Amino acid sequence: xxxxxxxxxxxxxxxxxxxxxxxxxxxxxxxxxxxxxxxxxxxxxxxxxxxxxxxxxxxxxxxxxxxxxxxxxxxx
Length: 76
What we know:
Layout lengths: L3 E4 L6 E17 L4 E5 L3 E7 L6 E9 L2 E9 L1
Antiparallel strand pairs: 1-2, 2-3, 2-4, 2-5, 5-6
């Protein structure tokens, strides 16, 4: 699995994701399973503005190539 680094967690406004390879898609879901954000950055370093999300816990699916990493995000 390619290494994925994400910070900060908990997130206030900006969430950063760095991958060893190109990140092809990022999907963020609330705990009800509803998709709240979906992007296709096609970059290895991504900075997401999450200021429009409510304070809550979210699940992010980060796809690199044919591999998917799931990351739990706490939004303050």
